[in-house]
Structures are given as structure tokens and as C-alpha cells.
Amino acid sequence: MKKIFLSFAFTLLVACEQSQQLQQSSSSEKLNLTPLDNEVTFNETIASIIARYEQENGQIVDGHTVELEGFSFADSLTHYHESEIDEGGIVKSHGQYLIILRQGRLFVVNAESDLKTLDSLASHFPDSMLGTSYEEMLIIDDTIVVIGYSNTMNATEVGLFTLSAEGELSHKSSAFIDSGDYNNFENYASRIVDGELILYMPKPLRAKDDVQFSDQLPTIRYQIDHQTLSEPTPFVNLDAVYAPFNETFLPILHTVARCKIDTTLNCDTSALIGRYSEAFYISDEAFYLAIGNKYPWDSKDETPFAPDFSYIARYDLTGLTLTLSQVKGLLLDQFSFSKRDNVLYTLSSEYVYSKEEYQAHLSSLPLNNFSDSPEQISLSTSTPLPGNNTYYLNHRFVGDVLFYRDGGFSSAEHRVSMVDIDAPLNINTFQISHSINHIEKVGEKVALFGWQHVRFDKKELKVSIVDKNASEALSTQSLDISNIFEKRSPGFNVINTPDGDIIFGIALGNTITNTNSTGSWWQSYQPYVDYYRYSEGELIAIGNNEATIREPNIQCEVSCIDWYGATNRAIFFNNRIISLMNYELVDKTLTEREVAARWVLVFNNELAHACLSGAPDNL
């Protein structure tokens, strides 16, 4: 596979003045190209990064890593960022079966009849105790792919399981791929594109005694028994590694894999050495990674007043070749990207030192403008957006419209703006009654979630429906729940009714403070799922589910703590409305104007079956 290698945007030992000159270079200047095609070059390149960092910041500790933190309707298990692309999650379906991933186990539930749990199996190699936290899964044909991260092995674990026509589970294989912790509070690391698994795995490259940096390239090992792994084989080859294109003292190897699934993994890979980043996005044709020119823990800031900008690295999913473009400002998360036709749109935030405030930019990047020697983005492709912007822009692309919060944090500054991405000077802005802390798609509209102070010591969580052509919120409702714990797409779900109404459910929760006899305290999470119906301009609360089992007596073996998000989901499947809340399934049917509870399914102590009970009075 032919590879075009990207070099440094500047050599790592250039003076501060040279670095500043590059950042202020004209649009006609291009990045230099130097092949990184042998171990000597690779090792010397990484060694120079480490040496300079140690000289200026002290020795790197061995093993140090950056923590990466009643009518018929179409099935909708979860709400995805891009509707045509399946992303990792804790609930999937296959035929009439729901598959649920909870605390290191897979559950198969028959959603065609009584929601009986047909089978349950550990989501790892039998009797394995390698300390993996299992966070997401996907289904390709009849294979369930379970993905987690093992702190014991410093590796991403990919387990493959077969689901039979009778709903029975069997283990195929478990692979461990060297990586850093890929988990992210706002994004899953896996997708399915054209029937293949797309997986993102970052890995820190560090100075270690008697270990060449080329020896730190990821390898893959398969589990043979509960404590034995096969000999490692290369997962990323040296000729698939791209050199860094901007200065970094703490290099990360950003690996993207495209895998065919059989009894084992058959993967093609590509990797880029660059700064730490959590902002990545997967479309139907490419993986995009935003790498900013500034992160306080990644560089000694010799040019603190240099403009913010980001490189956008594009891994083509066909050949995994890598090209670049640039945008003003820094990108925050996956929702900062949207690909439409042959154009990538981004929303970024730049700190303007002369004004001591942040400026948002909407950029449009035609895919044919990405290059292995990209020009710095011109002003004509970047539009500054109005408003008193903060760094943490809450935003969402919906079709050809960008919705974003353009105000500050005071009640007088709660504003929402809507921008036509093809005509970015066409902006509609109005004030709403509450803050905007979370935005979700609701058809061609959005639901805005945030808080409103009702008095100085009390605030309420609110939800408002907003349309791109409106001059005010179409409808607003108060929620009795304290917080939104799930910021990833699957925490929200929406369906359309035959009469044009919209029904959506959202994962919510309250924080509960617990104390014991010694006075020690800790906080736990009480999950809820709230349901709403938007009909004829009115938002109506139509149901609320609360988990009834707060501290279930279960015998958890692995992955016992949910580190990266909530475990409650609103599920629309097989003409049923089902709430998943920790260990409970609440089945609901839709009446004319409300969601009515039917019964509750609870996973029992043995984690092998489920028991049926009547609906509690509070549901």
C-alpha cells in the first residue's frame, strides 16, 4: 500500500522565532515533506522529542500516560451522531433480540415476546481476569464485537462472540492491541462503515530504558487461556506511520484500524504521530482527527500570543492514506464536525488576545482541498460567528444548519444561534429562558437542555424545542431531574409518529450522597429515563422511569464501575418503548397521549437469567 509520509511542519529544534513565523506564514507556503521510512529515522525523531522535553521540563516518568478520558414505528435503539453509521454502545439488536452489555457481561433478551433473558455470557475470554473495562459493542452479521480497555495489559481488548438464531452466545476470540486508554466521555471509539469495524486507538510514545521507539509500535496478541496470550505480532507496520507535522513534546501515536471480522481480526492500519487530541469524527468515507497547535500539558508555550489553529488529519477509509487541512481555532469534540456531500464543515473556537475573548469560526473544507502538503486555510473558507463566545461551545449540526450557544453564563446571555452552513452570514439568534448545556437533534429541530435559576439557591433543569426559522423557543418544559450524565449520542433517542409528532427519550439522573456508620460518604448515580412528545407546537412530558434497584446484590467479576457515562437508555424496538436503567428493563406501550409502564425486567444475582415482576407503583 502506497503511503505518502508527512514530515514536521518545522523541525523540533527550531528557535521560537522560526515557530512563530510558520504560524503566521502566508497561505502559499506549504509543509515540507521528509519520508519517515526506516527505524533509524523513526527512533531519532522520537528521541529528539523526548530529549528536548526532558531538558526543558524534567525527566518523563517511565510509563507516564495522558488519560484519555401502541402504533407501529421504525426501530431506533439509540441516537447516532451520523444516522447511517452505527457506533459503539451498550445496547444493540439482532433480529428479534436485544443485546445488552452490562458490567462485563452480555445479555440476550427476546424482544418479540416476554423480554425473557435467553442467554448471558461474560464479555471476555472464559475465566479471564485481565482487568478490562468493557465500554462498548457493535454487531456485524452474527458476530458481536465487544471493546474495552485493560489497564493491566495497557491494551485495547477486542472480543468476538457469535449469536445463534436461537439467541445463544458463544466466544470466538479475544485480542489485545497495545494502546493507551481510548475511552472518552463524549465519543465512542468504534464504528461500522460498509460492514467493517473502524477502531481508533491512541498510544503514548515514551522514553524507556533499552527500548527503541520502533519497538513501541502496537502489536496484537490473542488470548489462549485465562492467563496466557500468544506471542505478539505487528499490528502497525513502520511503513504505515506518518511523521508529526507540528511540534509536540508528548507524542501520541494516533492509530486507525479498518478490520474485517471473521473468527479473528483482519485489519489494515494507519498511524500518525501528533499531539494529544480527543476531537475525532468518523464519516462514511473517512476518519477525521483535529490536532491543535496548543495544549498546555503538551508544549512549553514560547509563543503564548500566537493564533489558535488546528490541523485536520483525514484518514481515507478506502486506502487509509492520510492528508491534511487547517482551520482557525481549536475543535472541541465529534460534534464540531459534519460532512455533507463532498465538504467537511467544522466549528472551532479561537482565543483572541486583543479582545480577551473567544471567537467561534465556521469553516467549510472541500474534500479535494485536503493534501499531503496543505496550505493554511484562507479566510474565505472560515467565517467568524457573532456572539459572546466561550471556549465550551455547545453546538450541533442538523442537516444544513448549525445550532450553537453564542452567549455567556448569565441569564441575560442565554442565546441560541442558527446558521445556514452554506450561507454562513444568514444567522438567526434569539434569547431563551435557560442556559444551554446540551443539544440534541429532534428531526430537523433541536432540543436544548440547561438550567434556569428560579431563585438564588435553586435551579431547574429545562428542555426547549427550537426550530431554525423560529424567533423564540417553540415550547419549554421543566424536568424534575438534576443532571444529564450521558453526553454521547446514544444517551438520547427519538422517533416520528405517523401523524407527524415527535417522541423522544433522554437518559437523566440524580446524584445521591451516601454515608455509612463511620461517617464516610460517597456519591452514586440514580438513573432515570424521561419521555416527551412534541405535538402541534407543544412539548408534553409523557412518562418518567426511575430505577428501583439502587444497590443490586450482584456478583460482579470485571468492569464493575461505569467510568465513562450513564447506563440508562431509551429504546424504541419491535413496537415497544423500553427503558434500560442499570439492571432493569421497563417495557412500555404507547397510549394516545402517554407512555404507560407495563412491567419490569430485572437481572438477578447470578447474572444468567432474568425475573419478571409487576410494575412498581411509582412507574
Describe the structure.
This protein is mainly β. About 5% of the residues lie in helices and about 45% in strands. Strands 6, 7, 8, 9, 12, 13 and 14 form a seven-stranded antiparallel β-sheet that branches. The protein has a six-stranded mixed β-sheet with strand order 1-10-11-16-17-15, with no helix packed on it. It is globular, with a radius of gyration of 25 Å. The N and C termini lie far apart (about 60 Å). About 45% of the residues are buried.
Strand and helix layout:
Layout: H1 16-23, H2 39-57, E1 86-87, E2 91-94, E3 97-102, E4 105-110, E5 117-122, E6 132-140, E7 143-150, E8 155-163, E9 169-178, E10 190-193, E11 196-204, E12 219-225, E13 228-229, E14 233-234, E15 241-242, E16 252-261, E17 265-274, E18 280-282, E19 286-292, E20 309-316, E21 322-328, E22 337-340, E23 343-352, E24 357-366, E25 382-389, E26 395-398, E27 401-405, E28 415-420, E29 423-431, E30 438-442, E31 445-455, E32 458-466, E33 475-479, E34 492-496, E35 502-515, E36 521-535, E37 538-546, E38 568-573, E39 576-581, E40 584-590, E41 595-603, E42 610-614
